[in-house]
Predict the 3D structure of the following.
Amino acid sequence: MGFEVDEDILQDFLVEAAEILELLSEQLVDLEKQPDDTNLLNAIFRGFHTVKGGAGFLSLTELVDCCHGAENVFDTLRNGGRPVNSELMDTILEALDCINEMFAQVQAREPLTPAPQAILDAMHKLSQPAGAEPVATPEPPVAKEPVAAPKPEPVATQASNAAGDAGIDDITEDEFERLLDELHGNSSPSKAAAAPSVSSGDITDDEFESLLDELHGKGQHKIAAAPPPADDSVIDDDEFERLLDELHGAGQSPTVTSTPEPTAPAAVPEAAPVAATPTAAPAAVQPQAPAAAEKPAASRNPPPQGESTVRVDTRTLDEIMNMVGELVLVRNRLVSLGINSSDEAMAKAVANLDVVTADLQGGVMKTRMQPIKKVFGRFPRVVRDLARTLKKDINLTLEGEETDLDKNLVEALADPLVHLVRNAVDHGVEMPDVREQNGKPRMGQIKLSASQEGDHILLVIQDDGAGMDAEKLKSIAINKGILDPDTAARMSNTEAYNLIFAPGFSTKVEISDISGRGVGMDVVKTSITQLNGAIHIDSNLGTGTRLEIKVPLTLAILPTLMVLVGKQTFALPLTNVNEIFHLDLRKTNIVDGQLTVIVREKAIPLFYLQDWLIRTGAAPSRKKREGLGHVVIVQLGMKQVGFVVDSLIGQEEVVIKALDDLLQGTPGMAGATITSDGGIALILDIPSLLKHYA
């Protein structure tokens, strides 16, 4: 396989195929729930057919073979040749996995690995109608019909052979049967008509009459004499429209266009209706008016619109976002100067610039937005496969799939959400027999929803399973050495639920390929924290569990609280800030060697940021710290920590700038930004700060 084709053509294929394959994964899971949905069957068939066509153009033979096998299976399914069942869906989903693997190899410009022969053979077997394997030929069941089995195929064959000299390819008997099915419905007239003589290229009058009887009912074609003159071999457009209306009903004639035009045998089945149509001409006068009315209506349809989208490299969007970020910083600086200016015209200009910049910032951010459906789309397949492995009955409900958030966040949320959904399937929902004993429906329910709340996105994973037992979680944590008994005794239920995020913590006794290693939820916690998000758990024993994840809409713009420590400005992410209050620093206590402050009857650890962030010589002495101070309470999961700062500057939206090589990796520093007064502020990474210093 080579990639010598035009790069633009290859990119078009990659974009189109990626969307189709992503949609196919959802459609296949939906089909298992709605096996009789004809529209869904046709949509899946078209999806495989489209990918096969693009792959064939690029000479990706291995990909073509696998898509062709799946396409044949769905052709049989949509024609009613075989029912949809779980075993068939297992094979098709395995084939889709192979197609996705080959597609990834195409993206990486690597040689394709063919699908396993066992899968191709299984699809070939499934592409045959049910019960077709043991039966050699379909003639015996057809012979039981009141009328003898037809054989108009030899006529078609002779006609096609005669046309072969003109360069038209022959069609097989099966193709001819399908062509008749499309013209006349599933019950092909060729299976009920008497077999005509094939000794010559023509059929006798009696055979022609019997064929008309089968097509239109006995004697129906003799109602009227044929009006066209014998010497008129050409019919005009109106007559042809009436013919089609009589054959298929008014307005149904466009279905004829679905027949393959190049095949000459198509003229053979049409010859009989053409000769018979004049007999029904009086009855066709009434539907002629509606048919004629539809033609001008169709002609008034507006021409198709041109492409309304354009593909842009994400690096270009990132560059534009960076430039808008710089503009935001300049805007903040001008707004700060405008406040102190007495020039009214200057103040108005700055105010207008502020509005325009905010609109521009919002517009550019929208270009980076993607619907979270891109992540949600994979979960029906995840739940379906995992539920079959665990022999559970689970229904997944998705809500808010059109909620938009930053492209980088969509990609970053994929792995954490997979862990949470798998955890709900494995740990949350009980086995069907257990649910039935507890008075619940055998089928468990998992709901995954997304909604926008202000400048944040709220993601909820909820199940109606067994819930979590706080005492059991505490006991496991004590046995694993994560907690001591005294701490566990003082712990609330909500705090106990958060133990599942501890590294190495798992409620499973045996380790399997699904769970038991205690790393999944730890990864979730770390990932959400890196996104400046928060996660909250609420559970009721015997009722179910609800997990809420709150993340910002974008990572490019960060709301912060500006504080002053010594003479240096620092920015605390506003998502972590819980409350701010003034405190008499003399009213603190030391518990187990840790300085604490009592807030609403709860002891909170207290730290002086200047001890960590200011050089020893520049930090004020302990005596100067006595008196009132500003305390910022930050929230990390269920843990609260207090930071003492010298003064509060205010809230400000900042653009995060990465630290250069010299400062890269500095503990507790997430980046830097330019403040509204033109200075530089370091953005604090609170989890890293506590891990390194506390």
Summary: The CA atoms of residues 608 and 624 lie 13 Å apart. The first helix runs from residue 7 to 33. The chain is about 45% helix and 15% strand.
